[in-house]
Specification:
The complex is a heterodimer of chains A (294) and B (340). Chain A has ten helices and six strands; from the N terminus they run αβββαβαβαβαααααα. Chain A is 33% helix and 12% strand. Chain A has two domains: 2-145, no CATH class; 157-293, no CATH class. The relative contact order of chain A is 0.12. By secondary structure, chain A is α/β, with parallel strands linked by helices. Chain B has 340 residues and is α+β, with helices and mostly antiparallel strands. Chain B folds into two domains: 6-63 and 87-203, no CATH class; 213-249 and 273-336, no CATH class. Helices cover 31% and strands 21% of the residues of chain B. Chain B has twelve helices and twelve strands. Chain B has helices at 12-24, 99-102, 104-112, 119-126, 176-182, 194-203, 213-222, 227-235, 241-245, 291-310, 320-324, 331-336, and strands at 6-11, 28-32, 37-39, 67-75, 80-84, 92-97, 128-133, 159-165, 168-173, 190-191, 252-258, 263-270. An eight-stranded mixed β-sheet of chain B has the order 3-2-6-7-8-9-1-10. A four-stranded antiparallel β-sheet of chain B has the order 5-4-12-11, with no helix packed on it. In chain B, a hairpin with a 2-residue loop joins strand 8 (159-165) and strand 9 (168-173). Chain B is globular. Classes of the chains: A alpha/beta (294), B alpha+beta (340). At the A-B interface, strand 2, helix 7 and helix 9 of A face helix 8, helix 9, strand 11 and strand 12 of B. The structure holds iron/sulfur cluster (SF4) (5 copies). One iron/sulfur cluster (SF4) binds at residues 193-196, 232, 236-242, 253, 256 of chain A.
């Protein structure tokens, strides 16, 4: 931990970065985000299996970006990012929301995080994304810490659920999602935590004309959750934050993961994995199948 | 209106029989489930566990629904016709309500009867019977004792349960409404021993008082501009998780939903003061344009404005907003920090 703290302190002291976005410990099994501008505060930084938040969400926030500009110069933002969070940063760079030169990525060799605060770290409590993680090492970084360690073994329950839903007929599947979406209270926590839900004004907040009913009744909830799923297809990096944030325990990742599988099958594309390939929707390839047009 | 509390004893079996009867009569019976207060279909669902932490959401939605039509309209070339909504005033019995929930409707009542009497709220509230259950455990987010309540508070309950042993509860009749509700079941009740159940209540461990709400009230008045708000505003993500799981947050939005040019309805939907567009004016001006101002509003509304207006803190100390916050913002910690 000292390495991380010293490194972050130096970045701030040498004025290489304007702020460090990282994690601080709250209780033994819980951390929370912290935005540090004072070098002395870097002593609070931690990195461990309880660093659940995907801090990439802060990179597009106006108030955080405003920290970058001082009177006489513009500085970078440093961010502590798990390898999977780096995917989100890559996606944001690809979508021109941030510039690679504006972020200083501090990453780790990662063997997983818990599915929720308060759990012990073991196979039973591994976050769903870690069970299927193909990265463990950041694809892009400016500094890397930590040793490679084995990720606990665990069964892929979310894939099993997807396969199970796949076997249902469309009416039964509709019933499943109907009962899930009925629970939605439109708190928009899923949108708030998502690094890729960065729209200044979300379509669901537009009132004239109103595209999506703001009422959290069945029609309003279906429109909201389906629009969100479509708008994130080919963009969602599978960080699982929406799922974790949803107070009503709606399994949002089932939808996002299924959409990502579709995108991978159709276009061999996985979001946030490469700075060299263009975004999925920003790129037209003559070889693309016509099947996707509705 | 003073009602003399009566102390009774009821066995767990008889309590479940009573619940079975409530369901058989077609009333709605709510009881804490894993994540929320669930509608009990079968009495075997009932846990009555005084050591359970508060559910993720409260039963607020049964008195103030997340989305409800308040009128229907028909429009023709020359006329608009308004059609009233028939409020479903079904009896709702909450069994095993946490002491940090029982008083929520009483707190909300002020707002919904302030400059306008909300008949939807009032009718539902009239048909609510709240059976509270003493609470025997807490976590780091609980702070009922800092907002004038406690794990053994009977406030807001019509009837109150205190577990005496594995299969017996002391049942306190607190209000006239509670008495009316329990009367048909008097065969289940035996006379209780108040001293004995008081001893149980006294033995319960209670969360330490984290702050003095009077001092917080004063500090807030003097610290509208304080750099502390900025720190919170940097981290908070502007969702409404905290408002929507809160038993006493009550902002709502009125929107018209047109089915067609000639027909539609007006909806009353939950809204939250942490949303960026909550205070956005038609002119484009936004008085709470940044998150720090919005979070400041949340704390001020709860611990200052509501107190000034209605004499009650707009917070029961349940800790739900903190437990569920995606970025672990802890209102107890923040309010405890409302000092120099
Ligand atoms: S998905 Fe991979 S990189 Fe992300 S936290 Fe889990 S193990 Fe680490
Ligand atoms: S949709 Fe959910 S899983 Fe996908 S990037 Fe956004 S928060 Fe992460
Ligand atoms: S977080 Fe859950 S309840 Fe909130 S808007 Fe998203 S899906 Fe709905
Ligand atoms: S305090 Fe937490 S739950 Fe409330 S708006 Fe901020 S991020 Fe959302
Ligand atoms: S503000 Fe938080 S702690 Fe207070 S009543 Fe609401 S949800 Fe509970």
């Amino acid at each position: 931990m000292d390495e991380l703290r010293n490194y972050a302190r130096e970045l701030l002291e040498k004025e290489e970065v304007a702020a460090v976005i990282g994690y601080q410990q709250v209780t033994e099994k819980r951390t929370k985000p912290i935005v540090i501008t004072d070098p002395a505060e870097t002593s609070r930084l931690v990195f461990n299996e309880y660093c659940l938040n995907n801090l990439a969400v802060y990179l597009t926030k106006a108030r955080i970006r405003s920290l970058m500009r001082t009177k006489d110069k513009t500085m970078k933002l440093a961010i502590v990012a798990k390898p999977c969070d780096v995917h989100s940063i890559v996606a944001l760079i690809q979508e021109n929301q941030i510039h690679r030169n504006d972020v200083h990525i501090i990453s780790f060799n990662c063997h997983g995080v818990v599915k929720d605060f308060g759990c012990d770290f073991n196979g039973d409590n591994l976050a769903a994304k870690c069970i299927k993680c193909e990265t463990h090492k950041p694809l892009y970084f400016d500094k890397i810490f930590g040793e490679e360690k084995q990720t606990p073994k665990a069964g892929d329950a979310s894939l099993e659920k997807i396969n199970e839903l796949e076997k249902l007929n469309s009416k039964e599947r509709f019933e499943f999602f109907k009962s899930e979406f009925d629970k939605c209270i439109k708190c928009y926590a899923c949108r708030a935590v998502c690094p890729l839900c960065y729209c200044q004004r979300c379509i669901t907040d537009k009132a004239i004309p109103r595209w999506i009913e703001s009422s959290s009744h069945q029609r309003g909830n279906f429109s909201w959750n389906i629009v969100r799923a479509f708008h994130l297809s080919g963009r969602c990096t599978g960080c699982g934050e929406c799922d974790r944030a949803c107070p009503m325990d709606i399994p949002l990742s089932l939808i996002n993961r299924r959409m990502a599988m579709e995108v991978k099958d159709l276009f061999s594309f996985v979001s946030g994995r490469s700075l060299e390939t263009p975004t999925l929707v920003g790129n037209f390839d003559k070889k693309d199948s016509d099947e996707i047009f509705m | 209106m003073s009602f003399k509390m009566e102390e009774k004893i009821i066995s767990k079996d008889d309590l479940l029989k009573l619940c079975g009867d409530v369901i058989a009569k077609g009333h709605t019976l709510l009881a804490p489930g894993i994540a929320e207060y669930e509608q009990v279909k079968d009495v075997s669902q009932i846990r009555l566990d005084s050591s359970a932490l508060p559910t993720k959401t409260s039963y607020k939605s049964y008195v103030f629904p997340k989305a409800e039509p308040i009128l229907y309209y028909k429009r023709s070339k020359s006329d608009v016709q308004l059609i009233d909504v028939d409020v479903n005033g079904k009896k709702i019995v909450v069994l095993g309500a946490k002491p940090c929930d029982t008083n929520s409707i009483n707190i909300l009542k002020h707002l919904f009867n302030w400059d306008y009497e909300d008949e939807f709220f009032n009718l539902r509230q009239k048909h609510f019977v709240i059976i509270g259950l003493m609470c025997s455990s807490f976590d780091e987010y609980c702070f009922c004792t800092s907002v004038g309540s406690s794990p053994v508070s009977e406030e807001g309950s019509d009837l109150f349960l205190i577990p005496i042993n594995e299969d017996k509860f002391a049942l306190r009749i607190i209000t006239e409404k509670g008495k009316e509700f329990i009367e048909p079941y008097s065969e289940f009740l035996k006379d209780g021993d108040e001293a004995k159940s008081n001893a149980v209540l006294e033995s319960i461990k209670k969360p330490e008082v984290a702050f003095d709400s009077k001092q917080v009230h004063e500090w807030l008045g003097d610290n509208f501009e304080n750099p502390k708000w900025e720190g919170i505003g940097n981290v908070c993500l502007s969702c409404a998780q905290c408002a929507f799981v809160c038993p006493v947050c009550h902002c709502f939005d009125l929107v018209d939903e047109d089915y067609s040019y000639s027909e539609g309805r007006r909806m009353k939907n939950w809204d939250g003061c942490q949303f960026g567009h909550f205070t956005l004016h038609a002119s484009g001006h936004n008085p709470r344009d940044i998150q720090s101002k919005r979070y400041r509003q949340r704390v001020n509304h709860k611990f200052r404005y509501y107190v000034d207006k209605f004499g009650e803190i707009l917070c029961t100390g349940c800790g739900r907003c903190s437990r569920g916050c995606p970025v672990s913002i802890d209102i107890k910690e923040i309010v405890s920090n409302c000092k120099d």
